[in-house]
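Example 3.
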Amino acid sequence: MKIIVCVKQVPDTNEVKIDPVKGTLIRDGVPSILNPDDKNALEEALKLKDQQEDIHVTVITMGPPQADEMLRECLAMGADEAILLSDRAFAGADTWATSNTLAAAVRKIGAYDIIFAGRQAIDGDTAQVGPQLAERLGIPQVSYVQNFQVQGDNIQVQRALEDGYEVIQVKTPVLLTAIKELNHPRYMSIGGIYDAFRSKEVKVWTSLDIQVNKDEVGLEASPTQVKRSFTPEPKGKGIMLKGTTKEMVEQLVINLKQKHVI
Amino acid sequence: MQFQLTREQEMVRKMLKDFTDNEVKPLAAEIDETERFPMETVEKMNRYGMMGMIVPKEYGGAGADEISYAITVEELSRACGTTGVICSAHNSLACWPILKYGTEEQKKKYLMPLAKGEKIGAFGLTEPNAGTDAAGQQTIAVLDGEEWVLNGTKIFITNGGAADTYVIFAMTDRSKGVKGISAFILEKGTPGFSIGKKEKKMGIRGSATTELIFENCRIPKENLLGSIGKGFGIAMATLDGGRIGIAAQALGIAQGALDETIKYIQQREQFGKPIGKFQALQFDVADMETKVNAARWMVYNAAWRKSAGLSYGKEAAMAKLFAAETAMAVTTKAVQLHGGYGYTQDYPVERMMRDAKITEIYEGTSEVQRMVISAAVIK
């Protein structure tokens, strides 16, 4: 069985600074990590690999050369192979251009059974790349997967909803997006770290290595326009009302009227 | 000259920080309080390849270099000195001598399970009357046909009882003094081999420290490690390397206490401001940071020399001496800067101060390190 896991290197902070002109993230000086949901996606693939020897796990990302570090971490956790899609032409891509690039790379990889992706990346929070990739590849997808089981030729998953979950049976090839409830990701292992640098490699593919037109990738091919980015104003302290229920309701109505809410 | 960790070493540190913060730190106070050997943590260390990490891959280890190993013990010890020494004793004192002196059969039978994390290792040299004077061994081993028969008692054995595989030293020929000492590999459960008293200690209280008792304990002839009469040399060479592990433990304890102190002095307010705003305390922290950094480079230098195949006995002794004294000085100061709270178990620095003390004593006291260092330079 061949599994592909889509991963992304993201800044490890909630206080990412944004370039006021370009409206994009300033990554300098911010430590980078493997996107948390993607770690769950990788863990699920590695759990399958623990159970069956013939499973091959490939991690793939699109990013700058520094993403090599994150891919080595994926290898150190136990992935077999890593592919870094890195080219200046890919830079500034929105989800449309990113999924296009990833789809071209997946086609180059060839046959696969499952593609795991994280639900969404903590830097953009779009949750679009996984689903878009499935659409481009023409394969079924299940998002928000919180439980996963192989049953013969079929896969049964639980898809989390706001107030419960759906049980869905799918056939491979399929794309699944993982949420943190799916599992507890493992750590890298010491032996895995040495393997990641000594016996495994990170393959770097540029736009020339995959079947994709340059005008279909990167910023130019991205229909998303960032109009403006801003840091939301922190909310002020709330007001705690005191007294009996009747007094508090009266006070609440007064306050809401003063603010023209009612 | 380069003062930069390799990418592998950086990643080992990153992994160990993550592991320590999530798996080791939450248990540190409890295992100290209850004197409980943290078997669940050891199982996790097995899973992630820390136990036996210095052993080459062909024997089931991770094939890690000595600096990565030092970083591992350092990071574990940053939160818990007990966990640090469990890892250090297993790697340095049990795996290493079998790797270095064992036959191919011994490596397959005893080293591989240790390296794969299936078994825990320990090292038995110290006796009631043979501490720093390790040559005064009273445990004896007599060859009887195809078996060695051991009689005697070892004390203060780290991982005692918890360990499955023991490297043990005994006199095979009293008339030859240190040249009459030989090394053996013993397994838990061998008839005549029992675990004696468990020590109640000041620090590293989760670590099992026990007596080992041999009463007509018979082991196969082939369990001799190295040649007859070479035991003392094996013990000394093992301790040379073990000192890097203990130096790393001391370094980790010191760093942990320093981290706690920096956090505390920025939160604790007296006279209307955080106490970290007072220059006297800032200077204390500057001294602590300086000592910890000096210790770190000494430890890594000794580790680097060992990996590079250079002599490292003196460097390991200096690193162990300096790191241990740093750990004691830094943890004592950490308690002082925490004031009354530092003296309570509400903060981890009192435990760190108790844990630090042993690093000045085991695997050669600070006095022994000074003997080793002076002997290397005064010729």
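The longest strand of chain B covers residues 147-158. The longest helix of chain B spans residues 231-267.
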